[in-house]
Amino acid sequence: METHEEYSWRGRRVRWSRRGSGPPLVLCHGTPWSSALWEPYADALSSQYTVHLWDMPGYGRSSKDDGHDVSLAVQGELLADLLRLWGGPPPHLVTHDIGGAVGLRAHLLHGAPIASLALIDVVALAPWGSPFYRLVGSHPSVFEALPAAMHEALLRVYVAGAAAGELTAAQLSMLTTPWLGAEGQRAFYRQIAAADQAHTDEIEPLYPTIAVPTLVAWGTGDTWIPVDRAHRLAALVPGARLELIEGAGHLVQLDAPVALTALLQRWLDSQR
């Protein structure tokens, strides 16, 4: 049975869903994505796991209110509180992009217990943040005021650059729709402006203290976060398993769905 819920947290409205039965599993999205990117995987894994999906505030179907802090620090606190809300045994945590930093902060700084950790093309190690991020961070109000058609064109090019191959029209629509309209446009640039490497610099020295089974998985064709980060990260986490997905880019969920599904199934099965 699938349920859809809304959680009120510090004035924010957090949309989340739960499906399936079995050990708990939480899927964490990154930027500029939403939980929709994980939907097919949640469906596939729900026959063996109780799968939780959630949209970070400022993303997807969660609230995008002006003035709300959407930094990695806030998202990490929220995830720790969500895990307490959901209860049950410690979950398996599968993360992507900044979802990795959020999950790591929830575990390392806020004491969220987890059974295992999968870090897939994650933001975790310096340096990160593209020249585009720095430009937006210096002039967020200018980008928020772009004509809608110019914003959509920029957004589509930006999102498409994360994939190793060409995205279908349906995939591009799924990824860009939450960022369209006046509210979505402001939220898109707000979350970029909130990106701060200090939030991973703070936890990077703690990676050698991670004591749960950890998978580091990466698309070898990732141009957003190059694969050298995978080797560095796996070397920092004691006993981490490193898996490379050939030819996949940063959007490994769409570039290599069969390979990623098989990898996650093997990884989670090894934890049972």
UniProtKB/TrEMBL annotation:
Chain ranges of the AB hydrolase-1 domain: 23-257
Pfam families: Abhydrolase_1
Organism the protein comes from: Jiangella alba
Entry's Gene Ontology molecular function annotations: catalytic activity
Signal peptide: none
Transmembrane segments: none
InterPro entries hit by this protein: AB_hydrolase_1 (IPR000073), AB_hydrolase_fold (IPR029058), Carboxylesterase_BioH (IPR050228)
Name the record gives this protein: Pimeloyl-ACP methyl ester carboxylesterase
SUPFAM superfamilies (UniProt xref): alpha/beta-Hydrolases
Entry superkingdom: Bacteria
Gene3D superfamilies (alphabetical): alpha/beta hydrolase
